[in-house]
Structures are given as C-alpha cells and as structure tokens.
Amino acid sequence: MPRPDRFIAAAVLALSASPALAQSQLDRLEVLDERMNGVIFAALEAQIPALSGYMPSLDWDDTMRQSGTCLLQAVEAQTGTDGVEQLLANYETTVAEATAAPGDLGGIRLNPPDGMATSEFQEAYAECGMLEWLSNRLAESGALAIILESSQ
Amino acid sequence: MAGPSETGVDARRSAPAAQRNREAIAREVLKLAPERGRALEIASGSGEHIVRFAALMPGLDWHPTDPDPGQRASIAAWTEAEGLTNIAPPRPVDVSNPGWAEQEPPTDLVVLVNLLHLVTDAAAWSAIDGIAAALAPGGTAVIYGPFLRDGETTSEGDAAFHRSLRERDPRIGYKDVIDVVARAVAAGLCHVETVRMPANNLLLAFAKD
Which residues in B lie closer than 8 A to residue A1 (C-beta atoms)? Predict the structure, then answer.
C-alpha cells in the first residue's frame, strides 16, 4: 500500500516544526498502539492457536514513529493541542478496557477527539501509514499461511 | 417501486461477475447461514446475489442495501421479476459512514460481496466495524472478494485490476486478507474460516459470540 508522500513529508517535519507536539505524546502513542495491537493479536491467536509463534513483533521502529508523528500532527492541525491530549486519553481508556477483557474484545474503537469526525480520523490513520506498517509486519510473519491452512 | 410489468421499463441490471460467482457464493453462505432470522446484504449492487440467496434460503428475511438509486431500482426489479417475497425494499445504506449500523436492528447474517477493494481503507474498516455492531449475538458475517495475500495479488488479472483501481484513486484497491481478519477480530468478531473460492477470491466467515 503506497503511503501518500504529503502526509509523511509533513510527519518528518512535524516534531521540529511543532513545538506543541511533544515527544512525550509520541511516546505515549507508541506504548498505547503496541498494547492495542498486542491485545488484538492475542485475540487472533486465541481464535487460531496455530498462529502462536507466528505473530510479528509490534515494537515501533523509525518508520512507525514517522507514521505516529504524522497522525498526531493531523489531529493537532484539526483540533489543536487539546485534541491530541484528548485522543491520547481516549486511547488510554480504550486500551485499558481491552486489556481488562482480552478474551472478549467486544469491539475496539478508538474515538477521535472533539472536532474531528471518525471518518476523518480513520482517513488520517490510514494515510499516515499506521495500517501499512502493520500489514507489512504481518506479511513478513507467515501468519497468512497459517490462516489459510486453518481454512477449508 | 414499479416493476417492469407495470411500466414496461426493466430496471434490472446485470453484472457478468455476479452471474459467474453467485452460485459458488450462495453455496458457501447456505452452509453458514441460520435457517431463520434477519439477513442484511451490504452494497447489494445489481441485486443478482440477493435474489439467489433469498431463493436458496427462504427462511431468512433479506434486507438489501445500496447507496446508488439505480442499483436499488435494479434490486427491486430483480426481486419482483423473481417473485420473491422474503426480500425487503432496498435501502440507501452507505457503510463508509462510521456509525451506519446504529440504525440496524440486530441481524443474524450479514453478507458483503465485492466491496472492500472498491473503497478506501477507512471505508473498509467502517464497513467491518458496522458489521460487527449490526450482528446479533450468535450471528454470522460473510465477506467475499479478492484480497492481497502478504501484500501481493495472486494473478495477472488481479494485479491489473488492483493497479487500475489505484490509478483511479490511490486510496482504494485490494485489501490484505490478514488486515481484514485482524480488523474483524478487533471489532469483536471471531474468525470462523477462510474459504478459497474460484478466480482466486476468498470468502471470510466470522461469528459474533
């Protein structure tokens, strides 16, 4: 999946160009995203036990930090620094709830801050490469073959 | 909506792909579907799939949807032409709008055929989130279409189609099957099976506990 250059270019500049976007906010997003995907992968493994050992590492690398910066920058541009704080608070609530009931996710939903529509947030999430990074990790993991083998 | 017998105008549309794949899809849906209940089809298109499903699974009340008025006219015309009484009038549901499922009653079966590759990632995830929200406990979701596998298409034809979609809009195109499975799991669904279908397509089945 190609990543729109305009978002990434903005992301590369974001930390230096935007003093309001603190490194600590990116660090929080990193921790939350790793935990969130960890819960999802654990649920996937619980449903398809053969996946055990095949799920990829969720540790962020430089590429993902650029994507995370891009996402926070998009949120900040639309909702301000308070919006970024609200997004992270929403994320913390979502992760806490998901972690508390890992066997019964019941639908993980990451709510955008006030002033940003869900569709706008989802577009930014995708266009900043947050999904692409995870896709690439999954593609490298061999998990797909396990899923197809678990089929008819 | 008046059908062809009343107006002399036949609103039925026909998609060659739908004519080719609907029997194979219907056979798999039949294995997974409950005998009775409410069945929702997302993006029903011409209506050629849902009339086959409704004929094959008469115990279900089928609810077609499509945002396009021309497609809804086609669905209604196919329904009348086939004489099916277990298909409700088509409704203009657009699953790219987050929260689209909030107005849907609890549904026992949701079927989604050949949509995800035609929409953006965000719209695809909105569709999946909504499917999970619309399903009643114990309900089943069936998602059919072409998918990337480990980021790659699986035939020259798929590669060309994927490329043509990307050229039309770089935000759309084939989704990776494992991303779809992961998203469905994140939305609260359980992966039931992945069925290999003709023409390199896949049918993904999920359940809601």
Answer: 121, 151, 173, 176
Domain span at residue B31? 4-207
CA dist., res. B60 & res. B53, Å (int): 9
Say how many domains are in chain B. 1
**Shortest Cα distance from A43 to chain B (angstroms)?**
7
In angstroms, how far is the first alpha carbon of chain B from the final one? 38
Instruction: Work out how many domains chain A is built from and give that number.
Output: 1
Output the domain CATH number for residue B22.
3.40.50.150
**Does the predicted interface ipTM exceed a cut of 0.85?**
no
Residue of A nearest to B125 (CA): A122
pLDDT digits (tens, 9 = 90+) for B32-91: 999 999 999 999 999 999 999 999 999 999 999 999 999 999 999 999 999 999 999 999
Q: Domain span at residue A95?
A: 5-149
Angle (CA) B28 B96 B146, round 5°:
35
Residue A25 — φ and ψ, nearest 5°?
-70, -40
Nearest CA in chain A to B133: A107
The distance of B71 to chain A (nearest Cα, Å) reads 25
